[in-house]
């Protein structure tokens, strides 16, 4: 019988509360949302999985990671290359090397292969990244993002660059991504409240002191790095399995800053912050995009303001870092809010 610590039990309570929120939003969207709103909410849940994968490493090791969209892209492309039917790949990838256009696998096996490839690549990169200082690690992760994007962009015989890689079977719907997001929340909370997560956060606060107490800092960072990459690969698979088409453009700087803003706003130190920040920005940006079109409000015709969403996103990052560096939630998880109200 597995015995959970008090912090892990608390983490499961918090995960259950967050799961209830995720289910409520998903059910309301399925029953009352339009087709466009369902796509919008699906995208929000995919971004949530990305932010959770980012939080596992950044939130616990306190090292900025700018390569997360690259790992999402690796998962998406690896799954797409495996699952897309042969006849479609022979049309879209006529010059594909290594027999990539000559086979097709079922979605489950394709997803497993994509996750395994991402985990191996993350492990090999992590062996170097976890030994760097915070600034050095951040620069290296940025380099990884640029390198992976360049491969996606210029190996058109495999990835088709900015052109659409089409024909991917549409396997997932909103119910699927809600379930996967809940699983990701549970994994992230259990890791955060585990002995590994607690030691990793302690080493982020005092690396010298933690090392003196016998904490294996590099090992813990590597575990968090690889776990985060696996979650990011799952997000990429969810993205590809819903849209049925992907390209290199979504897995680059715009997506990096979008998901970073979500984590920063909610609070990178908690899983609850990741969920809160994702929903606030995902739905808030829709209102900003509406204002960009120059709508009529209260009889007043507003001018078009193209680029307003980018300005709003930058303002969120700047203002949060200036006035609330730990984000809205700080170090608090959702169950602590309920506990305070109880007493």
In the sheet with the most strands, the strands line up as 1-2
Shape: globular
Number of domains: 1
Q: Strand portion, in percent?
A: under 5%
Keywords summarizing the entry:
343 residues; two-stranded antiparallel ribbon; 4 strands; globular
Please, could you describe this protein's structure?
The protein is an all-alpha fold. The protein has one domain. It contains 14 helices and 4 strands. The chain has helices at residues 6-32, 35-61, 68-83, 86-92, 107-129, 134-154, 174-193, 195-205, 207-212, 217-243, 253-266, 271-292, 308-323, 334-342, and strands spanning 165-166, 245-246, 296-297, 300-301. The strands form 2 sheets. The protein has a two-stranded antiparallel ribbon. Helix 1 runs antiparallel to helix 7 (174-193), helix 7 (174-193) crosses helix 8 (195-205) and helix 8 packs across helix 10. It is globular.
What would a concise description of this structure say?
The chain has 343 residues and is mainly alpha-helical.
What is this structure's SSE topology?
Blueprint: H1 6-32, H2 35-61, H3 68-83, H4 86-92, H5 107-129, H6 134-154, E1 165-166, H7 174-193, H8 195-205, H9 207-212, H10 217-243, E2 245-246, H11 253-266, H12 271-292, E3 296-297, E4 300-301, H13 308-323, H14 334-342
Antiparallel strand pairs: 1-2, 3-4
Helix pairs in contact: 1-7, 2-7, 2-10, 2-11, 2-12, 3-5, 3-6, 3-10, 5-10, 7-8, 7-10, 8-10, 11-12, 11-13, 12-13
């Amino acid at each position: 019988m597995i015995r959970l610590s008090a912090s892990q039990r608390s983490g499961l309570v918090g995960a259950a509360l967050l799961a209830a929120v995720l289910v409520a939003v998903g059910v309301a969207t399925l029953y009352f949302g339009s087709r466009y709103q369902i796509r919008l909410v699906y995208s929000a849940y995919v971004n949530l999985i990305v932010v959770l994968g980012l939080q596992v490493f950044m939130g616990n090791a306190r090292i900025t990671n700018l390569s997360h969209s690259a790992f999402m892209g690796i998962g998406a492309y690896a799954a797409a290359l495996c699952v897309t039917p042969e006849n479609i790949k022979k049309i879209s990838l006529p010059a594909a090397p290594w027999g990539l256009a000559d086979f097709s696998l079922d979605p489950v096996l394709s997803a497993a292969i994509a996750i395994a490839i991402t985990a191996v690549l993350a492990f090999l990169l992590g062996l170097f990244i976890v030994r760097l200082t915070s600034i050095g690690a951040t620069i290296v992760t940025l380099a990884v993002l640029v390198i992976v994007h360049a491969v996606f962009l210029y190996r058109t015989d495999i990835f088709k660059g900015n052109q659409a890689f089409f024909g991917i079977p549409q396997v997932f719907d909103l119910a699927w991504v809600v379930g996967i997001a809940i699983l990701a929340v549970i994994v992230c909370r259990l890791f955060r409240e585990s002995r590994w997560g607690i030691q990793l956060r302690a080493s982020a606060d005092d690396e010298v002191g933690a090392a003196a107490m016998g904490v294996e800092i590099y090992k813990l960072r590597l575990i968090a790095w690889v776990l985060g990459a696996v979650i990011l690969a799952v997000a990429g698979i969810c993205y590809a399995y819903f849209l049925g088409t992907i390209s290199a453009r979504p897995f680059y700087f715009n997506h990096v800053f979008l998901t970073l803003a979500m984590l920063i706003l909610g609070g990178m130190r908690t899983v609850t912050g990741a969920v809160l920040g994702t929903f606030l920005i995902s739905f808030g940006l829709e209102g900003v995009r509406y204002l960009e079109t120059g709508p009529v409000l209260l009889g007043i015709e507003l001018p078009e303001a193209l680029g307003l969403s980018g300005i709003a996103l930058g303002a969120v990052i700047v203002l949060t870092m200036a006035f609330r560096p730990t984000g809205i939630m700080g170090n608090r998880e959702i169950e602590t809010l309920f506990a305070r109200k109880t007493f």
